């Protein structure tokens, strides 16, 4: 006689327990992922708020700097210097000094020495501008000013190649900015204020931009100019973020 095999389950709850353990583990993993996501979102929110505050502070500082510059360069003064052949234009955190017409009001072609009218301009405006910024910093109005940059610029020559224009212009524009700074410091030694002397040495920076930022036709003498720019920590941070953003977009 054949016997039937009997199948018995030794532990009827073992299958149910293994499912329960698996579900518990999955829930734990899900909760862990959720917590990580929450932390990341909070960090991103905090970083966004921090960057937004920096941008807001930057915009506020830019407005205040513009107000300060315009307190020195008003409409009457602009008209007065325009009659002398020099255009003075305030743009947010900088002042642009350039020729009104096609002449050599500020610098001769390939010349780094300021002209007579350029020196008169430096004498008339630079001391007051520097003093106002110095007083504002001491009053904690602009405590994040990093540089006061004197920028030199050049025009292009039809006789030279693009590369030669850039190389020659680099030397010339740097020389112009340096000569303007030298002239200002020579005429305004501030020998009685050692603290201000040291501050000026740290914050006044000459810089040359060759022919890379033309304001007119690249061959125009109007490009032979000087710009007076106030650079803040906020501005550098914003520019760095924009550079990073642009680099990331290029690699996408």
Question: Any key phrases for this structure?
Answer:
5-stranded mixed sheet, 6 helices, 60s Ribosomal Protein L30, Chain: A, 252 residues, alpha+beta, 5 strands
Secondary structure elements and their pairing?
Elements: H1 14-72, H2 75-83, E1 86-91, E2 94-99, H3 116-138, E3 145-152, H4 162-187, H5 194-203, E4 204-208, E5 226-232, H6 233-250
Parallel strand pairs: 3-4
Antiparallel strand pairs: 1-2, 2-5, 3-5
Query: Could you give the order of the helices and strands?
Result: HHEEHEHHEEH
Low-pLDDT sequence parts:
none
Structural class: alpha+beta
Give the fraction of residues assigned to helices.
55-70%
- Reported CATH architecture: 2-Layer Sandwich
Look at the structure and give the mean pLDDT: 83
Give the termini distance in whole angstroms.
78 Å
Described by the principal axes of the CA atoms, the overall outline is elongated
What is the H level of CATH, i.e. the homologous superfamily? OmpA-like domain
The CATH topology is 60s Ribosomal Protein L30, Chain: A
Counted beta strands: 5
> What is the radius of gyration?
32 Å
Strand order of the largest sheet: 1-2-5-3-4
Largest sheet: 5 strands, mixed
- Total helices: the number is 6
**Quick one: CATH class?**
Alpha Beta
Fraction in beta strands: 5-15%
Q: How many structural domains? A: 1
């Amino acid at each position: 006689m054949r016997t039937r095999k009997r199948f018995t389950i030794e532990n009827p709850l073992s299958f149910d327990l293994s499912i329960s353990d698996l579900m518990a583990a999955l829930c734990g993993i899900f909760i862990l992922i959720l917590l990580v996501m929450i932390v990341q979102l909070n960090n991103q929110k905090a970083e966004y708020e921090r960057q937004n505050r920096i941008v807001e502070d930057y915009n506020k500082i830019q407005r205040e700097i513009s107000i300060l510059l315009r307190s020195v360069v008003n409409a009457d003064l602009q008209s007065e210097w325009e009659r002398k052949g020099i255009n003075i234009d305030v743009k947010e955190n900088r002042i642009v000094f350039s020729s009104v017409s096609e002449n050599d009001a500020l610098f001769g072609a390939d010349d780094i020495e300021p002209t007579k009218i350029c020196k008169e301009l430096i004498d008339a405006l630079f001391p007051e501008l520097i003093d106002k910024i110095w007083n504002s910093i001491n009053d904690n109005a602009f405590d994040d000013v990093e540089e006061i940059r004197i920028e030199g610029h050049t025009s292009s020559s039809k006789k030279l190649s693009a590369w030669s224009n850039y190389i020659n212009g680099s030397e010339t524009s740097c020389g112009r900015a340096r000569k303007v700074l030298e002239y200002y410091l020579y005429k305004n030694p501030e020998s009685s204020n050692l603290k201000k002397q040291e501050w000026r040495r740290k914050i006044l920076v000459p810089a040359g931009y060759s022919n890379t930022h033309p304001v007119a036709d690249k061959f125009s003498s109007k490009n032979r100019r000087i710009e007076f720019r106030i650079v803040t920590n906020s501005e550098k941070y914003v520019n760095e973020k924009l550079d990073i953003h642009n680099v990331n977009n290029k690699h996408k």
